[in-house]
Specification:
Oligomer: single chain
Shape: globular
Structural class: alpha+beta
Helix content: 25-40%
Length: 300
């Protein structure tokens, strides 16, 4: 088992910004005494394959060099094997477009994350697992359906290189064709499925998405719970008036909004749907979401 870190670099993250900055950022870690191996990815999904192979060889310490999508791929390389194979450690060099997970802990992502690695500041984190018709996927930030997934798809498709501004432009684009849909589900011991229409549903381990949008203000990364946030079928004018509340978390006070801390969500969808998971948009036939308490150590 290696005592050093494997840094997995996505040079395309942040519109190529990561590729320009990664070498200098890694050299600062080496100068601070951190033992590093480096793997650079060249295609989507490669970080998952690299992390999985390294974990099988005994590697347990990793650094995600990129954005939320890079960390998401690495987490999916570590699980499900890490359920029984030993707890992995994940640090971050946030050089990508979005770094929402880190925002729970700091607004100074790059410097804070580097100091956390140098100081070995470990914090236990839950991992959430989505089971779908094609298998399982794992995430540490959030999974959402409805408006938030539509916005991320629009931002990724048309405004990917613009960071937080691109996400805001995606919001404005989706306002023009606002959809309110039902995503039937039940939580924990509920007897009935909730089939009401909504603007979005979000299943959160941490508070932020899209950079500064605080979808789940009461979420905690290590409480053993999924923070389930629902916003009902608000209209276009109402959403425009309340849009700023999505950035300070006060949207959950709206009469159409609600939140719960739960351990499991079961879906009864009649077709695959678009989901946004840690900044990536996938079309999946979702079956359930459950929490895996404390199975990852993060350097924060």
């Amino acid at each position: 088992m290696s005592d050093g870190f494997l840094a997995i670099v996505n040079p395309a993250a942040g519109g190529g910004r990561c590729g320009q900055l990664a070498s200098a950022a890694l050299e600062k870690l080496r100068a601070g005494g951190v033992e590093l191996l480096v793997a650079q990815t060249s295609a989507p999904g490669e970080a998952t394959r690299v992390a999985r192979a390294a974990y099988a060889r005994g590697q347990r310490q990793f650094i995600a060099v990129g954005g939320d999508g890079t960390a998401y791929e690495i987490v999916n390389g570590l699980f499900p094997e890490a359920k029984v194979g030993g707890k992995p450690v994940l640090g971050f060099l946030p050089l990508g477009t979005g770094n929402s997970f880190l925002r729970d802990f700091t607004s100074n992502g790059a410097e804070y994350a580097r100091e956390a690695i140098l100081g070995q500041r470990r914090k236990s984190s839950d991992v959430l697992c989505l089971k779908h018709a094609g298998g399982e996927l794992y995430f540490i930030n959030l999974l959402s359906m409805g408006f938030t997934a539509d916005v991320t798809a629009a931002a990724n498709r048309r405004f990917k290189g613009l960071g937080e501004l691109g996400y805001l432009l995606g919001v404005l684009q989706c306002l023009t064709r606002l959809r309110r849909r039902a995503f039937p589900l039940r939580a924990d011991d509920d007897t009935e499925f909730d089939r009401r229409r909504c603007l979005f549903l979000s299943f959160n381990n941490s508070r932020f998405t899209g950079g500064k949008m605080m979808i789940a203000p009461q979420a905690s990364t290590n409480d053993g719970l999924i923070e389930y946030v629902r916003w009902g079928p608000i209209g276009r004018i109402g959403l425009l008036r309340n849009l700023p509340t999505l950035f300070d978390g006060t949207h959950i006070r709206h009469p159409l909004a609600s939140r719960r801390g739960v351990r499991r969500i079961e879906f009864a969808l009649d077709a695959p749907v678009d989901v946004m998971v840690d900044g990536e948009v996938l079309t999946l036939d979702c079956r359930s979401v459950e929490v895996l308490p404390g199975l990852l150590d993060v350097l924060i």
